[in-house]
Amino acid sequence: MDVLIVGGGIIGSSIAFEVAKRGASVVVIERGELAQEASSAAAGMLGAHSEFSADHPLIPLALASQAAFPAVIAELRELTNIEVGWNESGMLKLATTAEEYGELTEHYEFWRRIQPQHVRWLTPKEVVDIERNVRNEYGAMYTIDQQVDAKQLSLAFTHGAMAKGARFLPYTEVYDFIFDGERVVGVKTTSGTLYAERIIIACGAWTPMLAEKLRLSLHMYPVKGECVSVTTETSLLQATVFAKNGCYIVPKANNRLVIGASAIAHSFTKTVQASSVHHLLARAMQIVPAIAHSTFEKAWAGIRPQTKDGIPYIGAHPQYENVFVVTGHYRNGILLSAITGRVVSDMLEEKDVPFHMTPFSLTREGEGHALRH
Amino acid sequence: MDVLIVGGGIIGSSIAFEVAKRGASVVVIERGELAQEASSAAAGMLGAHSEFSADHPLIPLALASQAAFPAVIAELRELTNIEVGWNESGMLKLATTAEEYGELTEHYEFWRRIQPQHVRWLTPKEVVDIERNVRNEYGAMYTIDQQVDAKQLSLAFTHGAMAKGARFLPYTEVYDFIFDGERVVGVKTTSGTLYAERIIIACGAWTPMLAEKLRLSLHMYPVKGECVSVTTETSLLQATVFAKNGCYIVPKANNRLVIGASAIAHSFTKTVQASSVHHLLARAMQIVPAIAHSTFEKAWAGIRPQTKDGIPYIGAHPQYENVFVVTGHYRNGILLSAITGRVVSDMLEEKDVPFHMTPFSLTREGEGHALRH
Amino acid sequence: MDVLIVGGGIIGSSIAFEVAKRGASVVVIERGELAQEASSAAAGMLGAHSEFSADHPLIPLALASQAAFPAVIAELRELTNIEVGWNESGMLKLATTAEEYGELTEHYEFWRRIQPQHVRWLTPKEVVDIERNVRNEYGAMYTIDQQVDAKQLSLAFTHGAMAKGARFLPYTEVYDFIFDGERVVGVKTTSGTLYAERIIIACGAWTPMLAEKLRLSLHMYPVKGECVSVTTETSLLQATVFAKNGCYIVPKANNRLVIGASAIAHSFTKTVQASSVHHLLARAMQIVPAIAHSTFEKAWAGIRPQTKDGIPYIGAHPQYENVFVVTGHYRNGILLSAITGRVVSDMLEEKDVPFHMTPFSLTREGEGHALRH
Amino acid sequence: MDVLIVGGGIIGSSIAFEVAKRGASVVVIERGELAQEASSAAAGMLGAHSEFSADHPLIPLALASQAAFPAVIAELRELTNIEVGWNESGMLKLATTAEEYGELTEHYEFWRRIQPQHVRWLTPKEVVDIERNVRNEYGAMYTIDQQVDAKQLSLAFTHGAMAKGARFLPYTEVYDFIFDGERVVGVKTTSGTLYAERIIIACGAWTPMLAEKLRLSLHMYPVKGECVSVTTETSLLQATVFAKNGCYIVPKANNRLVIGASAIAHSFTKTVQASSVHHLLARAMQIVPAIAHSTFEKAWAGIRPQTKDGIPYIGAHPQYENVFVVTGHYRNGILLSAITGRVVSDMLEEKDVPFHMTPFSLTREGEGHALRH
């Protein structure tokens, strides 16, 4: 086998899709079901603009991924017939306090310099003119932000990769590696031993434990994100509405709204706290008062991988050069899925990657990533 | 057939159980599944004390029913092997505002006169000594209040009645009656026509529509009650905690807490409003702060039958004397289930009922219940 | 109000959609949630060809409805953004016994005369060439048969009607009519009294009970249909496969197969019999052996309205001319949804209906439909 | 900490319960939720007699555990108030073919020698006299076999251990051990590093992967067991009915029957095959024909740990003497839960264990268990 990918979430699947398209033989190993965990729990914003208000190494990848989405979605639909609920209705960032107003101004100014044609400042009246159910506060509209059903997109990458010849082994767990000098030549799994030319570790928040077996300390931790959803009789929103203090409201098909998300660091527990349900609903009703009359649907949680410096790990193992680690996307995993497969495939083929990848190195300077001796 | 009961909730089933025990042949018709609607949605308090703070016609029945429960539970367990989660851990009423303090004093004084041995006034310190997770406020403990799993108790009555020979026809709907002069001799149902000596209408909030076909106007309306449940790692409460403004917290098996309930009049819609989830959690966290860290489980709603004067209907039809109506128990249906079957069976057998039943008459004075001409 | 529709399933909603489009004010009353019962339980075949092998009054409507679907789907998507999973992958009818071979020949010959361009006879080898997972038996392919997700289509009609101004009252029950001489001027409901110029009864299998109140005996009965679904790792089928003895296999999105359906007459009970699950899986594994290795998903049931002569009721009440009854579509309700709204709207407007509607009359000759005196 | 247990299923929890009772400080680490996997999927037979028809090292433990159950259940109920659905209605083994008749005779003779007072041979007529819904075949009744709700019993051990002071860390994963010469002094987990005097590995089918990190090869494999459940209107069975070819029918509360179980070796996949649902229902309807009319409820799977020689591993690590492994109970984990905690606690305290434990040694002779070098 050419490439073995550990992790059947959206990152592993999107890499499998691209690698298989380029003709390599691929196997993906997943310890549970495919497209679970953070990949299915995400609210599905493809918000290249929502996360950054200053220069950041991820911005070029985020913009490139967002731009790539329409074509990727079309390609996946053609291959799999899976509907992923994609649309490009934009994101409305809102300021509900003086402090948020300051931050929004800064955010708006930052993006106005980069993409003036896609950003628009809004007075409270203009906010209500555009989204009549939103509270009248100052806002900024980022017109090209998109969104998808994250679970369906993850499944589309999975089935798209299958259509291109990739094989998936769900309910299979890697518990050790097979070494041959300076190379890792295979993995021991609960479905038997597998050998491969190249191995990619893309296990989200569970990556560090596997990396330990390769004598690599990753400075990562899990961040639980909790969401609730409600349904309404008529459509309340067109755009995603994003306020500070962990509150965004994403309008989905069938008059459904996803309200996210808490950020509870260092928890692998997929339970939802009562206080989080309370807080998310309170914030949502403050921003869109009509949500008070909506029908409560459900609450859930996902465990997202965060790194100490907030930059994903995308790169080769410093010692075992045929092993790659791709993780740490935190809240940007869905957004980056369209480009990650291409970047990693370029690395595998030793092509030039059209992005500056040094900041994503596994041994970048700073607070850690030390190889253990 | 001797007796035909329309309605397979806890009231219809408890009547079927007693009637069958006394040797009559019984058929129960239910348009959906058995033991659904309000019977399965209730929090399951058997709180004879919680609902009343002044004289009320229901008090004698409530106390008698509460006293009857231990024996009824034992009998049903013997017959059906169904566990109903009964316990007698008491009810702690709490005052969180000055207004509630006044009401609690009145409530306590009322019950102290009736059952001094079962009531105890508590200082904030005493409240916390008894229930260490409850906020330190003045309270009163009603030591003999009990609780059950309402759904399981409803099923136990259903299966207990089956064990005594009653037949149940679920998914069967009555759409008309068969008259013979001044008697109703049968019903037309979606499972065919059935004839009976006596007919009992016990359809909860859906009773008025059927009563109309018997030219009887009942002054009733539905009141939706919404609940949420949470689970905790360790037990937070022993007693049920009851505060004003529609908030009670009922500790169930497996460290589960049921938090209820809203009261939305005139709604048959079994959806849960987002604002209700928010409000119930807010109140619960205020009274038992550790609930903030509990795990959210789910939310649900039930439709309870309320009468205009707040007194159930239990009695014979003014014109068709072999027809009886038993409904309108609002929040007291589970509590009254142990005694209702006996009272109604006595009526059917033309025995003396050991309670003053005039206030429950279908044609009692006041604002309605007029027979249509 | 111009038009009041009782019944919020796919028939009621499709009528509401068309009536609202033509400018009338419409209210739809539904006693439970919208788009439930048979409308959400159906497998979603739009098989104009699968049901008939001889002349039948429904054939012109079925073909017209099937032809109308692509445009209707597009219109609903534009209005509601709801994906209904429509595709036009055809239907493969299979003969697994000598008796079925005879029937298939007859069926094929019948349709070859009507639509030679859309029918193709297949040898066992050709069957396997087209659908490699199907057992090698003689078959016939009906190339233009379509399918949808029935529940989503029903919701699309509901929300499409809302977009055109129709109002829906879920959890509202009609329990009586208001008469004024030879007209029905309104209905009494659990949400209050409503008046309308015209009233349409479209309550599926529950229609006869309401019709009784209008002194109309409909010769109808419920037929429970049970289905199971399975999922597979790779796609097993493109076309719907239809064999005799109540077995069809409908390929859905995400490698899901719906296997239907039993036909249990005179049952309103929405439970699934163990023997039906057993039988459906046995037949499916016989026809598509690889289903043995599929993952079992779930089982469910719907209650379909059937008439004694197998022809739906679509027409005016013989006495109350402003009341219309539209029901009895049995297994063809989803298929006929695209045309039913138009036909009924034409009737309401007293336009010429472009179909021969006498066979659908409520008082047609034969075994019943007598007006009661 | 005195004792650290890896694995929060019924084995780990029952050890935690006993160890905590004896006064040691205990922490249990579980990578998912507590009481999941095989512990919650089991049908809950406590059938000391059903599994063996010849001498086997497990028989003394099985009989002792069965005898201990009534007292353990009472103790857990007292501590936790959790109902576990225990009863002692016996097991009816049935022979439906000539081959099974021979095996049943052998089985009966074996147990008649050991416990003549608890075994009874039954003619077909006697079978039907005792269980009137069972097919008239030869049978044998093992009168003291018991059963529980496996999931509830597992939770009762968990919460019983908590009540005795044990701490549980759900959603926590062990990914490495900390060594100090010939001792393992702690574990690295996703919730941080933990140190303990003694460490017990009780991870069911997932144990071998962890054992590998301690240089121990366990000859084990997973065996998936699939079950279905149905409900009936009246009780069909009193005793558990056990026929060959993987079919047992266990009567539960509320007229529910659990039908199990397939045995699919080498699968960690918790999906249920369509063919298994088909096969389980077919066998159940053959043995208890009235099951054909029962209501299908659901299907599920659990992954059970099996060893190569069929004997569990219960013993100390050959090299790291403060590490113990307890796993491989296959279909006997629930049955053995009442005694396993005591046996392991005795081992930890270096007391004499009142059973012959050599056959359970991790390094027993035969086909493996070799320590890796």
TrEMBL record, chains A, B, C, D:
GO terms for molecular function: flavin adenine dinucleotide binding; glycerol-3-phosphate dehydrogenase (quinone) activity; glycine oxidase activity. Residues 2-347 form the FAD dependent oxidoreductase domain. Its cofactor is FAD. InterPro entries: FAD-dep_OxRdtase (IPR006076), FAD/NAD-bd_sf (IPR036188), G3P_DH_FAD-dep (IPR000447), Gly_oxidase_ThiO (IPR012727). GO terms for cellular component: cytoplasm. Keywords: FAD, Flavoprotein, Oxidoreductase, Thiamine biosynthesis. It comes from the Bacteria. Gene3D superfamilies: D-Amino Acid Oxidase, subunit A, domain 2, FAD/NAD(P)-binding domain. Its EC number is 1.1.5.3, 1.4.3.19. The keyword Membrane does not apply. The keyword Mitochondrion does not apply. It catalyses: a quinone + sn-glycerol 3-phosphate = dihydroxyacetone phosphate + a quinol; glycine + O2 + H2O = glyoxylate + H2O2 + NH4(+). Pathway: Polyol metabolism; glycerol degradation via glycerol kinase pathway; glycerone phosphate from sn-glycerol 3-phosphate (aerobic route): step 1/1; Cofactor biosynthesis; thiamine diphosphate biosynthesis. GO terms for biological process: glycerol catabolic process; glycerol-3-phosphate metabolic process; thiamine biosynthetic process; thiamine diphosphate biosynthetic process. Pfam families: DAO (PF01266). Belongs to the FAD-dependent glycerol-3-phosphate dehydrogenase family. This is Aerobic glycerol-3-phosphate dehydrogenase.
